[in-house]
Specification:
The complex is a heterodimer.
Chain A lengths: L6 H22 L5 H6 L6 H12 L2 H14 L2 H26 L5 H6 L5 H34 L3 H18 L2 H29 L11 E5 L5 E3 L2 E2 L11 E4 L15 H10 L1 E12 L2 E12 H4 L8 H4 L2 H20 L1 H4 L8 H30 L12 H9 L1 H38 L6 H25 L5 H25 L5 H20 L2 H8 L14 H18 L10
Antiparallel strand pairs in A: 1-2, 1-6, 2-3, 4-5, 5-6
Helix pairs in contact in A: 1-9, 1-17, 3-9, 3-15, 4-5, 4-7, 4-15, 4-19, 5-13, 5-15, 5-19, 7-8, 7-17, 7-18, 7-19, 7-20, 8-17, 8-18, 9-15, 9-17, 13-19, 13-22, 15-16, 16-17, 17-18, 19-20, 19-22, 20-22
Chain B lengths: L11 H11 L15 H30 L1 H5 L8 H28 L5
Helix pairs in contact in B: 2-4
Classes of the chains: A alpha+beta, B mainly alpha.
């Protein structure tokens, strides 16, 4: 679809974003020293840190991706919410405190604490880089998807905008600013999603009007885009979709239910009939045609598992394994994300750390409940763009009013700014501290270390932008799910076994991290989805039976660690110091 | 990655305490083992117990989705089906368990600073 721009929307958006960036510059001026740059002085109050946890964690994926997935596929988007939040239990109860008791504060240092091995530092630094990059891709894709409906500009522009903005923030200000960016972002995100949810409940369910004829989008060989055979233009475009066909019988002939409470909303939706649209592609001499056809579905069918993981209802084994694999990867992934764990240590002590995690879980939990309603509201808003799941949430806001749309887009954009800053910090730290200083053993002064970090940050920013443009056709939660798969496969086995199995050896850790990362990365790059949407090859050419590697690669990581550790075990006391 | 850019810092207990205060790390060659406290291992056990409770809930949910999808479609809660209700339930359970953990650790550890 093509979008009208609104000067008012752009003005609100720009003010908001510049305000956040300006604030971060201001706070950043205080972070003079290298220690301040990276470690935020260890002075962050637990409540602030808790909300910053939420701001850090709730990336474009949660907001745009889950909403979009629920809007188009129903319940299965909610599975991501459930899985993402469950991962905090692993992080809080299994990983966080044992690591702190090791007396280590960085991910790589924790894994290396017993062995002081350059091999471990190398493996973990690379794994951190890979995970950070894979987590960056959905953020950049999300940024592009925010800019399109707001400015009417191409996807790539949004990607480049966020890349440049973040690189500026990170290079000039560093950790302190990212903590405050994330705190602000976390609070605003939850608050405005609350506002939007109230508006959705207030609107209730409304029967849709407008044509339900199938729509065809064609990309001709010369690149022009046609809609239903005629060139696409503002006056001849794809129609927005996502409507209610019929309300429950108890509402009689009314066109709308009026305001509903949250429980009533869910139950009324389950009894309604909803029009969903699914794409079908076929190619011929005239170009690549995508036909969007409407199907009327009962709400209660949409609100149970199986909308995306179709095998859950049809019994196809590959889909069932895919589902289990995803739930496992999400559960294990949070604790394995380097950029999440480090926030745990910016508070004073254990008690403060626990309190901040509780605050974080509460904020995130509330947010996921809200996104359920946002997704369902978008599903029935009549404002969805059939070509993009990621744009569901901003378009939902646009269907209420332009100001709210501008604010929500600005918040989502700062969401991306915050998450991307944190990731670039993690990645640039991996390069500057772990790779250059510890593995290559190049001595650097304090000043040089910071400069090295900044150069790394710029490099990462460029890579992220390029990949964000390449992966633009994916739902962002789906992409984040992949990052979780890699993180869980590469990092979790090593971390858990180091903490709880005394016979872990350094070769075991190196092997587990390397194999876990390469296996999951390889699987993803060879999966049917990547074949289809990135390389443009047919799905069937891929050998991978399903798209989420976790079910195979996480146990593989554990297995490799155990086997290699047993093979390289030394008598007690002879461990390399 | 939170990078520790302190120069090779003071070692021993003073260094450990300073490290906690400033959020920095200890010198990499520090030989002193982490402090062992009975309260700490009690907290760990509480954490583990709560963790397994959640694993049971989460695993139970996954099992329901795989093997009893019809059950999830049932709507015993005032018109809302079990699928939605259990999803919301898992979210609430995570928060409840986190609060229980925080309170239990505080009781077990006694003093506000550990």
């Amino acid at each position: 679809m093509l979008y009208e721009t609104s000067l008012a929307a752009i003005a609100i958006f720009a003010t908001f974003v510049l305000g956040v960036v300006g604030l971060s510059f201001y706070l950043g001026r205080k972070a003079q020293s290298a220690q301040g740059y990276y470690a935020a002085h260890g002075e962050i109050h637990w409540f602030v840190n808790g909300i910053a946890f939420a701001g850090d964690y709730l990336s474009a994926a949660s907001f745009l991706g889950i909403c979009g997935m629920i809007a188009f596929y129903g319940y299965d988007g909610f599975l991501y919410s459930i899985g993402f939040l469950a991962g905090w239990i692993v992080a809080l109860f299994v990983i966080a405190e044992p690591i702190k008791k090791l007396g280590r504060f960085t991910f790589a240092d924790a894994l290396d604490s017993r062995f002081h091995s350059r091999g471990i530092k190398l493996a973990v630094a690379i794994s951190t880089l890979v995970v950070s990059i894979f987590y960056l891709i959905p953020q950049m894709v999300g940024a592009g998807d925010l800019i399109v409906p707001l400015l009417g500009l191409p996807h790539a522009v949004g990607v480049i905008l966020v890349g440049v903005a973040v690189t500026l923030i990170v290079v000039t200000a560093g950790m302190v600013s990212t903590t405050w960016v994330q705190f602000i972002k976390g609070s605003l995100l939850v608050f405005f999603c609350g506002v939007l949810t109230v508006m959705i409940l207030n609107r209730g369910l409304v029967v849709g009007t407008g044509s339900l004829a199938p729509q065809v989008r064609t990309v001709a060989p010369d690149g022009t885009v046609l809609v239903d055979g005629t060139p696409q233009s503002k006056s001849h475009d794809l129609r927005p979709v996502g409507t209610i066909a019929a309300l429950p019988a108890r509402y009689g002939t009314a066109a709308s239910t009026g305001p509903l409470g949250p429980w009533e909303y869910l139950s009324a939706l389950e009894d309604s009939r909803v029009v969903t649209w699914a794409p079908k592609k076929h190619t011929d001499a005239a170009g690549i045609h995508t036909t969007y056809s409407p199907t009327e579905r009962l709400g209660s069918d949409l609100l149970k598992p199986g909308g995306y993981f179709k095998g859950l209802t049809t019994g196809k084994l590959a889909d069932k394994l895919d589902f289990v694999s995803l739930m496992l990867a999400l559960f294990c992934g949070t604790a394995s994300l380097p950029h999440i764990l480090i926030r745990y240590y910016t508070v004073k002590d254990q008690a403060a750390a626990r309190k901040s995690t509780v605050v974080g879980i509460a904020a995130i939990g509330v947010f996921y409940v809200l996104t359920l309603f946002l997704g369902l509201g978008a599903m029935t808003s009549g404002a969805l763009d059939p070509t993009s799941t990621n744009m569901a949430a901003p378009l939902l806001a646009k269907s209420f009013n332009t100001t709210l749309f501008a604010i929500i887009s600005a918040i989502a954009f700062t969401t991306v700014l915050g998450t991307v800053s944190g990731l670039i910090m993690a990645g640039s730290g991996a390069v500057a501290h772990d790779l250059v200083e510890n593995v290559l053993r190049i001595p650097m002064t304090d000043h040089e270390k910071v400069r090295c970090g900044k150069i790394a940050a710029v490099g990462l920013g460029i890579v992220a932008m390029a990949l964000g443009i390449l992966f633009r056709n994916f739902n962002v939660s789906f992409l984040v799910g992949w990052a979780f798969n890699i993180a869980a496969s590469a990092n979790l086995p090593a971390l858990v076994m180091l903490l709880f199995w005394p016979r872990t050896t350094k070769e075991g850790i190196i092997a587990a991290v390397t194999v876990g990362m390469l296996a999951s990365l390889g699987w993803i790059l060879l999966s049917a989805d990547t074949f289809e949407k990135v390389y443009g090859l047919p799905r069937d050419a891929s050998w991978m039976p399903f798209s989420q590697p976790g079910l195979v690669t996480i146990p593989l990581g554990f297995l490799v660690l155990v086997v290699v550790s047993l093979l390289t075990s030394r008598p007690a006391g002879a461990e390399a110091r | 990655m939170m990078v520790q850019l302190l120069p090779e810092g003071p070692e021993g207990l003073a260094g450990f305490l300073e490290a906690i205060d400033t959020g920095g790390s200890m010198a990499p060659s520090d030989e002193r083992p982490p402090r062992c406290e009975p309260a700490a291992s009690r907290s760990s056990r509480i954490g583990f117990g709560l963790f397994w409770i959640y694993v049971a809930l989460y695993g139970g949910f996954i099992a329901l989705v795989l093997f009893a999808p019809g059950l999830l479609a049932a709507r015993p809660f005032g018109g809302v089906n079990l699928a939605i209700a259990s999803g919301l339930g898992l979210i609430v359970a995570a928060l409840v368990l986190a609060v229980v953990y925080m309170v239990a650790c505080r009781i077990v550890e006694g003093a506000p600073h550990d």
